[in-house]
Amino acid sequence: MSPTATDRAPGAALDVRSITKRYGDTPAVDAVSLDIRAGEFVTLLGASGSGKTTLLRIIAGFADADEGSLLVDGQELRSVPVHRRDIGMVFQNYALFPHLNVEQNVAYPLRMRGMRGPERRRRVAEALEAVHLPTFGRRRITELSGGQQQRVALARAIVSRPRLLLMDEPLGALDRNLRDALQLEISRLSRELGLTVVNVTHDQEEALTMSDRIALLDRGRLVQFATPDDLYHRPVDDTAAAFVGESNLFRGSVRDDGTLDGADGVVFSPPSLVDGSAVGSGRVAVMVRPSLVRITAVGSAPEAHSRVDGRVSGIVYAGDSRKIIVTTASGTELIAREDAARPLDVSVEQPVTLHWDARSSIVTRLAAGSAGATAPAPETRRTARA
Amino acid sequence: MGRVLTNQGGGRRWWISVGLLGLLFVLLALVVPLAVVVQRSLDAGFDNFADALASASFIRSLGNTAVLAVGVTLCSAVIGYPYAYAMARSGRVVSRILLTALMLSFWTSLLVRSYAWQVILNDTGLVNEALQFLGVIDEPLQLIRTPAATLIGMTHILVPFTILAIFAQLRGISPDLAIAARGLGATRTRAFWSVTFPLSLPGLAAGSLLVFVLTLGYYVTPQLLGGAGNPVIGQSIVEQTNALLNTGVGSAMAVILLLIVVVILGVAARFLGLGRVLGLATERSDR
Amino acid sequence: MKTGLTVRIVGIVIAVLLVVPTIVICATAFTSGSAVSFPPQGFSLRWIEDVLGDRRWTRAFGNSFAVGLLAALFSMVAGAALALGAARARGAIASVFTAISVLPMIVPLVVGAIGFYLVYARLGLTGNVLGLALAHGVLGLPYVFVNVLALLRTLDPRIEEAARVHGAGHLTTLATVTLPLLAPATVVGGLLAFVSSWDEVVVATFLSDARFQTLPVLMYSQIRSGVEPSVSAVSLIVTVVTFAIALAVFAVGPIRARLARRSSRL
């Protein structure tokens, strides 16, 4: 959208300060704080029931928090009624006005702001051009495909150059190809316009692709608020590690000698698994990404690598990669992921050794109340949410 | 931090205030008049009620109404059931014809239909002419101004409610059930009585209840077809208020009628759900 | 499993009985004789012309139309308002809205008529369009309420949230989004309310006087004073108007269904 590059209106900074919302006794959102910078693209990521949608609705003004404050460029937003918050919003099911045509839908926010005449027409045309639907103005909403409807919804959300752009699972109803194309388009558009975006999704891939930062929520609490890179490589605890990307997780206590108690059969190398700070800190989780795990015949793993023996229990192809599932003597399932183009040199039931560079092990704390905090055995969790 | 005005609550409050607008209209236009009827009925203590209940003609009209309501309900059930069944289980053409006939009848003005029955049942009406032509009778039969005329007219007016209620119920019963019963060796008749009929009973009950309650309040049709000789409650009430200008007793009678209706609906609501009964009345209810 | 032949024949016979009265009356309107008889004697339009040329009938026709339109308007505004309240309030308040909306359906007309008469007479609301329209408006309200409520149940609340978040206040959202979306159901309910007013006799009799009569009131008094073909002619006209409205309702029905489908898919 080149015409607007000259008169872009950068989004506002949004300071979410310990927002809490309870339904009955259970907090749906539990003291969540986020400092969202102007022009930043932030995704609230979490499973259903994590509180991400509630938090978005609080920001939009459809629900009010019980505690905390929302500051937009330093001003309290909570006392501002929905229609004065200067927000653009994209809904999961688009929520277009079925009785209005495309142009009228996109013009709606401008109409509400009292803008009329040629200026309004120009802005509507610009917005439609930005979403690649310049000739669709007169179409009825019902004549559009799902993808086109979502573009119209996007045009309607950005046409007034709002201080905040909120998106509630914007791509949830679309098929995969369309989703991938729109993901890129939405990130491009939001960056070009300098919009501050708060996006909600349960799709970690979408979150990792589009966001400057991701706020990972779990049961109403903020687990981690970090860049995709940090979230992936430096999860703060086992919840984050398990939710974002695939992981092999070993939970246990760090012994005085630096090895992990409870992770039967796993030889961590070098023996001093963690630096001194983790020793005596109680239970921890050690995470290894499946893509960093190598698989060899028993006994042929490099000395310097951490390793564990097991038996191949399954081989699953997934696009360009394949997953090799290995069950250890204690019954734990671990995953190694390798390039599908490589020749397959293991077969089911074959005894193998899984090994990985010691630097691939990431030590995190255990989340309070997480399953691993009480379960003694090492455990592998794969996210089922991709 | 203090509780800031919640927008969601504000939203709910907004819709409540919108609803209150309509509520106010019903209160002023209907509830106040009903309250005044109650007040007028009590303007001499319970004397008006005592007078009403001491009136032989009112008691007789209560009996007439009860008999009429039972009769109309039974006739509607007997006529309405096969009709609804044929409508629900016939082929496209027959179903269409039956539905169209039903709607033509249903949408004809209540007054026009009462008038039509008057014309048909007259001494020189269609029925008497036909019977005389066929030589069945020599002198015209007294059909008009009889309880039978009221029964015929009221059944014609109200049977659509029974039909629609049963039809709605039958449509929700899969024909496969009866087919399955036949597959297990039941005859067509036995399959109907052992499977389809029991499942359709809630619709029959809802429709019958509605017809019964609606019959209680009718005035015009009994007046035109039954005449003044065998009055129903509605006629008693109108006579008190219009002819005798005794609004106190008339109001007492009206309150009694209202109480009867409310009690019946209240009891029915416990078993059938009021929505089920009244949901049908919304198609088109004329009294 | 198709029905047996017997059931179908019984059905057709009842169908004939259902429509016979309507047909008889419409036919007697075309008689050339001076008595209402079936089959009619000859064929003429004299009674229809008679009625259309008679000031009493045309005035009553005009009164009925005015009352029906105004009543439908009252029903639509109040019925839609109550449906919105019932759908969007919670708990006891929603129940109150629903109860008050079905009340007009429960009250026997005779009972309502006395109440209207007692109150409206004191307020000068008898013998004019406004009083009867208020009474008929409240009696027709349930049609609008039920239809609008059914549509509201299928309406995606996010469409209105979209209006709110993009700058519309409560009232603006109602005017620019909610009401346009509810229009088909409101109109259907309004048409039904019109029809129920159009042929209502009991309340109309109580609220009319010698100078102000609606069509049913005049018809009723004519029928009582002796059957005449002019009444059949009026019946024919009344029936034609009602059927025209019925067709309109069935025409709007598909539009509403389409709208409901649309909003459920979106």
Automatic annotation (TrEMBL), chain A:
GO terms under cellular component: ATP-binding cassette (ABC) transporter complex
InterPro entries assigned: AAA+_ATPase (IPR003593), ABC_SmlMolc_Importer (IPR050093), ABC_transporter-like_ATP-bd (IPR003439), ABC_transporter-like_CS (IPR017871), Mo/tungstate-bd_C_term_dom (IPR008995), P-loop_NTPase (IPR027417), Transp-assoc_OB_typ2 (IPR013611)
GO molecular function: ATP binding; ATP hydrolysis activity; transmembrane transporter activity
Record keywords, A-Z: ATP-binding, Nucleotide-binding, Transport
Gene3D superfamilies linked: P-loop containing nucleotide triphosphate hydrolases
Limits of the ABC transporter domain: 14-244
Low complexity composition-biased segments: 367-378
Region (Disordered): 367-386
A Pfam family that the UniProt record links to this protein: ABC_tran
Protein name, UniProt field: ABC transporter ATP-binding protein
Organism expressing this protein natively: Labedella phragmitis
Lineage, top ranks: Bacteria, Bacillati, Actinomycetota, Actinomycetes, Micrococcales
TrEMBL record, chain B:
ABC transmembrane type-1 domain residues: 62-268
Keywords tagged on the record: Cell membrane, Membrane, Transmembrane, Transmembrane helix, Transport
Transport among keywords: yes
Annotated TM spans: 14-38, 58-81, 93-112, 148-170, 191-220, 252-272
InterPro entries: MetI-like, MetI-like_sf
Listed SUPFAM superfamilies: MetI-like
Protein known as: ABC transporter permease
Entry superkingdom: Bacteria
Gene3D superfamilies for the chain: MetI-like
GO BP annotations listed: transmembrane transport
Keyword Cell membrane set for record: yes
Family statement drawn from the similarity comment of this UniProt entry: Belongs to the binding-protein-dependent transport system permease family. CysTW subfamily.
Subcellular location: Cell membrane
Membrane topology of the entry: Multi-pass membrane protein
Any one GO cellular component localisation term in the record: plasma membrane
Listed PROSITE patterns: ABC_TM1 (PS50928)
UniProtKB/TrEMBL annotation, chain C:
GO cellular component: plasma membrane
Residue ranges of the TM segments: 7-30, 65-84, 96-120, 132-152, 173-195, 233-255
Listed PROSITE patterns: ABC_TM1 (PS50928)
Compartment annotation: Cell inner membrane; Cell membrane
UniProt signal peptide: none
UniProt cross-references to Pfam families, sorted A to Z: BPD_transp_1 (PF00528)
Keywords: Cell inner membrane, Cell membrane, Membrane, Transmembrane, Transmembrane helix, Transport
ABC transmembrane type-1 domain: residues covered: 61-249
One of the GO biological process terms: transmembrane transport
Family label: Belongs to the binding-protein-dependent transport system permease family.
Protein name according to UniProt: ABC transporter permease
Source organism per UniProt: Labedella phragmitis
